[in-house]
Amino acid sequence: MSHTSNFLPFAKCRGPVSRRSFLEAGALSLLGLGMSDVLRAETLAKAAGRKVREKSVIFIWLPGGLSHLESYDMKPEAPLEYRGLLRPIRTNVSGIDVCELLPMHAKIADKYTIIRSVCHEFADHGGGHKRFLTGRAPATPTGFVNDAPAVTSIVSKMLSRPDQAMPACVAGVDGGRQGIDTFSLGAAWLGAGTTPFMVAGDPSDPKFKVQNIGLTPDMQTRLDDRVHLLEGMDRLRRDADSSGLMGAMDEFSQRAFHMLTSPKVQTAFDLSREPDSVRERYGRHAYGQRGLMARRLVEAGSRFVTMVWENPGGKMPQDCTYNWDSHAVNCDIYADLRWKMPYYDQALTALIEDIHERGLDKDVMIVATGEFGRTPRVERNTGTQTKVTQPGRDHWPNAMSMLVSGGGMRTGQIVGATNARGEHPVDRQLSPNDLWATVYRHLGIDYTESTIDLQGRPMPILPFGAPIAEILPAA
Fold this sequence. Notes:
Layout: H1 19-24, H2 35-47, E1 56-61, H3 80-83, E2 88-90, E3 97-99, H4 103-107, E4 112-118, H5 125-134, H6 151-159, E5 169-173, E6 197-200, H7 217-220, H8 223-239, H9 245-261, H10 263-269, H11 276-282, H12 286-300, E7 304-308, H13 333-357, E8 364-369, E9 373-374, E10 379-382, E11 389-392, E12 395-396, E13 400-406, E14 413-415, E15 417-418, E16 425-427, H14 432-443, E17 450-452, E18 458-460
Parallel strand pairs: 1-7, 1-8, 4-14, 5-6, 5-7
Antiparallel strand pairs: 2-3, 4-13, 8-13, 9-12, 10-11, 15-16, 17-18
């Protein structure tokens, strides 16, 4: 990732509407269901013996920051130095346009919502990752080490069960990118046991193999010893004091044991079990096969699957860049998008359609976003690789666009708007916290409650934010 700039001279993002004022406006009451109502309804349904499928999320993370002006918030009437060279195309929903490089998006706009008005104040990649992925303003504006738990750790803490074979949270990344701090997925005060299970490598590679699941032959011979170890831990736990430390270790060990021995886990990660036609539909590239893996994992019981889409695979053209960080020094933004967008278009639309066709669209929520948008004015600079002057865009947290689908959410709409040059929201200003409040609500997590840190202190799950009322399922 480029770190050529930290903070840029942008207009200050005013931050989110407070939860109190939002609720006073009646946003949730208009829909007839508050957070407690949702949880109560699910509890009653389970008590009545009705099958309630556990909700899950597929989070497509686009590090570097997808340009909103070349994807979901194009400004064809703006001056050339703002609108750029690409043009919008119509979709199957009147009033929704997307970039010309997203023709498959255009065919299924009725199955997703575009949110155009999220913003925050952190223009560095590290600060942007931490701000977005934790729902908190980071203590430092740079660096990727969290001082608050990532959303994945909150989900793992709240939804993991000792008897669950599938990891609650999984993250798929490129090889060499599996460090927990690479994308600010650290657990902070919730402890390392709540971090996602990392799957590194390109699943479209015929030699791809998921590490740390399944038993090797030498481990088979020691399986009885592992069982006895767990039994001993159970006895020790019963006799131990109430510190909770042994219980936490026991739970972590049981989850690891289930992952090592469960055929269900091995099957969930095995893409060879999918028909060739399905794998081709998603695309035989890193984006597509990670998307397909995400669908298999949520079907198998994972609750929050993060799939990081950086390099789609293959040989990268000289005038392109590794992820979505489209500075002019990194790439020619138009050449880069012409290379990446067809992969993105194919993989994301295949995932959305597959979720709907398999009847998962009420239970599985899909979110696709990066940490911020790109500068409204196109910059020109000499490319590090090409050595020629080329166009690009810098970091811009004052406006960004994202796509949401599934989860029973209302789709075929646009939420929020930016001004004529895509500089800042002018309607329905939101923060990342409002997205996370929506996600937590979908998962059945009461975001108004607290978790307990390693020192036994209560910490709010989400310090502020409210569900995005426009997309919530109708009552």
